[in-house]
Every structure is written in C-alpha cells, then in structure tokens.
Write a structure and sequence with these properties.
Blueprint lengths: L1 H7 L1 H18 L1 H4 L31 H37 L1 H16 L2 H12 L3 H25 L5 H8 L4 H12 L1 H24 L11 H8 L8 H28 L5
Length: about 270
C-alpha cells in the first residue's frame, strides 16, 4: 500500500527517478566519466560545449561533464552525512524534551530558541569561521545549524503521543523509560523522521553548496557543484555555461528531494489518508 500510494503521485515518481539516476551516476562515476575531473588543459580554458566535451570546460580547462559526474558522489555524501547528524541529535533532544518535560525540556527548548534567533546561514558561517574552511567542517556547520529545527519538530510530534493511553499502559505494567522511548515513542514518530530526513537532505546539500560558493566549504580541486559555481562566477558574461550547468544540477537534486519529502508526507500522514 505504501509503494502504491507513493508511485500514484507523478511528482513523487519523477523525484524518485531523478534521485535514482543521480545515485547510479555517483556509484559508477569512474566508468561513466569520459575524462579525469582534475586534469587541466590551460590552452582550452572556458571552451564552449563541443562534441568531445558536451558541457564544455571550466576556467582551468577541466572537463565540466566529468566534474559534474564525480560531483554527484560529493553531493550525496554531503547530503546524507549532514542529514544523519542533524536528524540523530534533533531526534534525541526532541524526544527527551517531550518525554521528561520539566527542567530538562526548559533547558533544551530555551537553547533551541536562542539558536533559532540567529539567521540560519549566518550561524553556519559563524561555525565555519570557528572550525575553519573545508568540506567536512562545512557539513558539520550546516548540520549543527539544522539541529534546532529538527528538535522543535520532533518535540511537537512527540508531545502529541506522550500522554496517550498506550503510553500510560506501558508505564502501568512496569516498562522502563528506555523501552517506552524506543519501543513506543520513536516508532510512532518514525514517519515524521522519514519525511524530515528527505527535507534535511535538500537543506544540507543547498547549505554546503552555498558555503562552497563563498569559498568556505569544499576546496580546489575537489569536484563539488558549489565550488564549480564559485570558480565560474567571474565569467558569467563570456562563458555562462560554466555557471548554468552546475546550477541546474543543484536545483534538480534539491527540487527532487523536496518533492519526495512532500510525497512521503502525503503517504505516511494518517490525517491525509
């Protein structure tokens, strides 16, 4: 029933197909890439698309198609690792705040309020300034910036069920807190976690790409899409293909992840059935 309802939506099916294609390209990048993504050819800098180089060349004469193909690997690692970190800590803080309440909830939520008072991207830039530039440091910065939002959402979802009759029954038969949290609360908010994971995937990818565009994320010669935009920003008028191509792939991947998140919400939310 889950898969039937999900595939019934044409937009969700489109998003799944796009994500599977990008995942396939990421896995088999060494076999699909026509050239070495770091090989430079300075005499052909900013070359327009040709038969041999369908996406043209970048400011250092490197094949853009090869860098896009290898960039799918970097982008998937960025999205999955960042989403896992933010979801993991956000779920822990959110469930604990809702279940235990009292002083623990007040401390966690006041800290969340303080962090949410900072503009999201400014806070990420502040963290990168503390950690230093680099891809993994940018992933950590974006993931930490996302934790307060995840905490608030998971806490709200847990509060709806923490006083349910089956939770009271579990307490009455002597179930300990660990069992109630993992066997009852976590299971019942799993649909929210799944949906928000797909949305976090797009948030992290877009955030790290933006940091790389500012020179705070991935560093040369890594084939990362945001870094490719950074390297091409000075040639928009004479070689627009260098900016358009990675930009289109970023938009396509982020859009697909968001559409899939909406589709999962429609399927997993019992109120919408």
């Amino acid at each position: 029933m889950f898969w039937k309802r999900l595939f019934r939506s044409k937009s969700s099916l489109f998003a799944i197909v796009i994500l599977l294609i990008i995942l396939f390209v990421a896995i088999f990048a060494p076999f699909l890439s026509p050239y070495d993504p770091t090989e430079q050819s300075l005499e052909f800098r900013r070359e327009l698309p040709t038969k041999e180089h369908p996406f043209g060349r970048d400011p250092f004469g490197r094949d853009i198609l090869s860098r896009i193909i290898y960039g799918t690997r970097v982008t998937f690692v960025v999205g999955i690792m960042g989403a896992l970190i933010s979801i993991f800590f956000g779920v822990i803080f959110g469930i604990f705040a809702a279940y235990y309440g009292g002083r623990l909830s007040s401390i966690i939520m006041r800290l969340v309020d303080v962090l949410l008072a900072f503009p999201y991207f400014i806070f990420a830039i502040l963290l990168v300034a503390i950690f230093g530039p680099g891809l993994w440091k940018a992933i950590m910065a974006i993931a930490i910036s996302e934790i307060p939002k995840v905490t608030r959402i998971i806490r709200g979802a847990t509060l709806n069920i923490v006083n349910s009759e089956y939770i009271e029954s579990a307490r009455a038969i002597g179930a300990n807190n660990f069992r109630i949290i993992f066997n009852h609360l976590l299971i019942n908010v799993s649909s929210v976690i799944i949906v928000y994971f797909s949305l976090e995937l797009s948030h992290v990818i877009l955030g790290v790409a933006a940091l790389s565009f500012l020179g705070l994320g991935a560093q040369p010669p890594l084939p990362e899409w945001g870094l490719m935009l950074n390297e091409a920003k000075g040639y928009l008028m004479i070689a627009p293909h260098m900016s358009i191509i990675p930009g289109v792939f970023i938009v396509l991947l982020v859009l697909s992840a968001n559409i899939l998140g909406d589709g999962l919400r429609d399927v997993l939310d019992p109120k919408l059935k």
